[in-house]
Specification:
Length: 193
């Protein structure tokens, strides 16, 4: 698979470095483009959390398209180094924070900010997406009132999740990639009307 590239925005066309080995779950340009077509103009000025940063491709795409801030978390030093390199390549490091560590531990701490989008694309077939989603559900204060949690998995990994604060509202399938969208349950967010 060729190196991921930034599709649109300030860093459009920049080829990113890939993380060596198989510790990441790469996203194809087609799926990434589809995802950002769904997010549309709402990404502008948004805050983004890339929970399993990998190459940083998704969070950097968000920054390139005008997101205000992105925090990347990855357990692996080589992935963290790759994200930092890719942020320098795209000159987007000022609006980013890269943390090496366990995403579950970090999200179990009190929230230091809220995110409009939390993106979950862990390594495949390890049940990590359910654990990540449950962690966000248990610490929903990380997600802004009208924020979305977006999960990227292989369709065979999918199963409906029983959640306390979040509910699934959309699925999109692109070949062997499934994007699942969650938001806060309607009774969670007080009406602002």
């Amino acid at each position: 698979m060729s190196n991921p590239r930034i599709i649109s925005g300030k860093a459009r066309g920049t080829r990113l470095k890939s993380v060596p080995g198989d510790i990441t779950r790469p996203i194809t340009d087609m799926v990434k483009e589809a995802l950002f077509n769904i997010l549309g103009g709402d990404i502008y000025g948004a805050t983004f959390l890339d929970m399993f940063g990998g190459t940083g491709s998704v969070g950097i795409e968000a920054l390139s398209r005008g997101a205000n801030f992105c925090r990347f978390i990855d357990l692996h030093r080589v992935a963290v180094q790759t994200i930092r390199t890719n942020l320098e390549l795209t000159r987007l490091q000022e609006r980013a924070q890269v943390l090496q560590g366990d995403a579950f531990t970090l999200l179990s701490r009190p929230a230091d900010r809220q995110f409009d989008y939390i993106f979950i694309a862990p390594p495949q077939y390890k049940g990590l997406w359910e654990k990540a989603l449950a962690t966000v559900d248990n610490h929903v204060e990380w997600l802004s009132e009208d924020g979305w949690v977006i999960v990227q998995i292989d369709p065979v990994e999918y199963s409906p999740q029983s959640l306390q604060h979040l509910e699934e509202f959309e699925q999109r399938r692109y070949g062997n990639t499934l994007l699942i969208f969650y938001e806060r349950k309607s009774e969670e967010s007080p009406s602002s009307e």
